[in-house]
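STRUCTURE REQUEST FORM
Protein name: Probable cytosol aminopeptidase
Source organism: Azospirillum brasilense
Requested output: structure tokens
Priority: standard
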Amino acid sequence: MKFAFAKPALPKSGTVAVTVATDRALGAAGRDLDQKTGGTLSRAMKASRFTGKKEETLAILAPAGVEFDRVLLVGVGKGEDLSEAALQAVGGAIVAALDKSGETEVSVLLDLPDGGTVAPDAAAAELAFGAQLRSYRFDKYRTTEKKEAKPSLKKIIVLTAEPDTAKRAYGRLEPLAESVAYTRDLVSEPANVLNPESLADRCRDLTDVGLQIEVLDLKKLRKLGMGALIGVAQGSAFEPRVVVMRWDGAPDAEDRRPLAFIGKGVTFDTGGISIKPAAGMEDMKWDMGGAAVVIGTMRALAARKAKVNAVGIVGLVENMPSGTAQRPGDVVTSLSGQTIEVINTDAEGRLVLADCLTYAQETFKPRLLVDLATLTGAVIIALGHEHAGLFANDDWLAENLLAAGRSVGEPLWRLPMGDAYDKDINSDIADMKNVGSGRGAGSIVGAQFLKRFVEDLPWAHIDIAGVAWSKKDTATVPKGGTAFGVRLLDRFVASYHEGK
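Status: completed
Returned output:
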């Protein structure tokens, strides 16, 4: 998809999209177009249920009085509700309405209703950003798709009074959109293509955007003593990897300690010896979603030259049953020196994260830690597919992550922690066990396990199991891998560590 910005002028072909506010209120450009078409826009709205609500669309084919092929009316709602996220949804609605229409190009007359707080140039950029997010499609393996089923839209031109400033604003958003697409690609790849070794190799290519990459192989992991992570991987034909990504964007900062982002990267999760049911197991290719988000976030920070020091660490394993697989009842020694009785081999992500959390703290002495993982099915029972679960030992960190999530449309919900939950993972033969004694509070118990590997510094755990993959289209997220967390972490960095 190509994006351009131009002064308002009606094209001679293609489609014109016109924004309409609540109660069918046309802006100046919309009223002018309505007059040129002999009132076609007004009549069409009156004859339909279209009222200008957010993301509503109404197509008018071959309107009289103009040369182009159709008008697409797009609802934007009330001016006071027209946030950055709402404008992105408008862009997404345009793509959704036209992508299978056969149309190849659309010009958008962006009429902003009164009461809004987003400047016109920024609004144009946000609309294009949303359209780019919604236009994502993973079609790498499609070979027989019919032409009429393929997306047709190739170009969006946003018409605005200040196209040059809008283009510059979009230029700051484009690396983030590209990184979201990169993350979705990783999550969508099948496990016979993406394994711990091949994913680590893909990470090496991120030196092209300026990241420093180090890959720790099995020999190095053994030397370090990452027994928890290695135990998960030992049933697979693929050796584990830990990838360390560094971005030193603030070399002269008074506090040069990096922000540390940690990701669970189980490239396929059968459950191991505690094997999962067959139904739906194909979805476990995205059990590396937390790692993908960390990789995408680090790519975004480097691509936009973020003025921050950050490190991303991802533990990459495949959890398979075999003659060499970890057994229920095994005891492993983590990098921290703490021992873990493995009760359930399907509670493997926390073992991977434990060693990565310790490595991050010992090696980089970070200012804070944020880990992301498709950790528990229990978080889906608690929150569905609308929010990710947030756990934290620091209120400031939790509040800022919550705020960042709200602002970009990736909402979090903070869940409790406490000693009563922590006691549930005490083991009779080791320092701890990897699951609790019952089925209750599974997500909280997982977070309590991770907390045992966090030293005295701010830490947050984000359980993205319910939001890493979507089974339906939403405003800016087509069905499939969502990359939930990339925009959230990028906004968290920009707002609270770059002063933007």
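Reviewer notes: The chain is about 35% helix and 20% strand. The chain has two domains: 2-161, 177-496.
Form closed.
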